[in-house]
């Protein structure tokens, strides 16, 4: 087998993959790989020249590595464009209302609060308990028998005695009755987008009275 400074021809790819410096943590680039390959050919033993098959295999390895580098570069460009588009979309939501799967919302009790609950199967009785910031039940919205799907409900902002509650953050607990069993339901509540947090793997919406919610959880975008 031909050698270059004591390194076998089969070691070129291994030499390519080793790190230049243990402190810098950088791999050899394609130019260094090509230089090693040329040096190997120039210094090979004329009595034991490198076989065509081995040479072609090393060229194929070099082409594969170069193709992977180009693919990585293309993917980075696509990802950067996607993130920019996503950031632009998210920034346009500031000041608007979105519907998200949460159980708390900032409520202006001077007007009706409209939301919905997700009912997986039909129920003989569906109701929603409304809690204030102290955790006390202030109202119950009875929806009666409902079919499977999104069940809309409206809270008029009043307690069980008919008194108008103060504006603030309220929690909504939806329940459904199945025979002798009662199960909780997911609620879809409206919230205003105060700001958008960029960075990380996903954009986060900062919602009034709710907190941070991933952009992917937005169900509906309002006006």
Q: Would you kindly provide a brief summary of this structure?
A:
The protein contains 3 helices and 13 strands; from the N terminus they run ββαααβββββββββββ. The protein is an alpha+beta fold and about 220 residues long.
Description:
Belongs to the FlgD family. Keywords: Bacterial flagellum biogenesis, Cell projection, Cilium, Flagellum. Residues 109-179 form the FlgD/Vpr Ig-like domain. It comes from Phytopseudomonas seleniipraecipitans. Helix content is 26%, strand content 37%. It is an alpha+beta fold and 223 residues long. The strands form 2 sheets. Strands 3, 4, 5, 6, 7, 8, 9, 10, 11, 12 and 13 form an 11-stranded antiparallel sheet that branches. The chain has a two-stranded antiparallel ribbon with strand order 1-2. β9 (168-178) and β10 (181-197) form a beta hairpin. α2 packs antiparallel against α3. The chain is elongated, with a radius of gyration of 32 Å. It starts with a strand and ends with a strand.
């Amino acid at each position: 087998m031909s050698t270059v400074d004591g390194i076998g021809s089969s070691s070129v790819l291994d030499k390519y993959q080793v790190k230049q410096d243990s402190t810098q943590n950088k791999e050899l680039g394609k130019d260094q790989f090509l230089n090693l390959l040329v040096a190997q050919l120039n210094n090979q033993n004329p009595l034991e020249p490198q076989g065509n098959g081995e040479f072609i295999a090393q060229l194929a390895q070099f082409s594969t590595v170069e193709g992977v580098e180009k693919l990585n570069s293309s993917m980075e460009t696509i990802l950067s464009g996607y993130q920019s588009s996503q950031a632009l979309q998210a920034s346009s939501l500031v000041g608007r209302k979105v519907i998200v799967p949460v159980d708390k919302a900032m409520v202006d009790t001077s007007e009706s609060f409209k939301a919905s609950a997700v009912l997986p199967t039909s129920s003989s009785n569906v109701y929603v308990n409304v809690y204030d910031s102290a955790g006390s039940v202030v109202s119950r919205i009875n929806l009666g028998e409902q079919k499977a799907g999104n069940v809309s409900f409206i809270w008029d902002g009043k307690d069980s005695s008919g008194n108008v509650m103060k504006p603030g953050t309220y929690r909504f607990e939806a329940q459904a009755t199945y025979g002798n069993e009662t199960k909780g339901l997911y609620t879809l509540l409206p919230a205003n987008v105060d700001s958008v947090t960029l960075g990380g793997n996903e954009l986060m919406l900062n919602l009034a009275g709710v907190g941070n919610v991933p952009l992917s959880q937005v169900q509906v975008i309002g006006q």
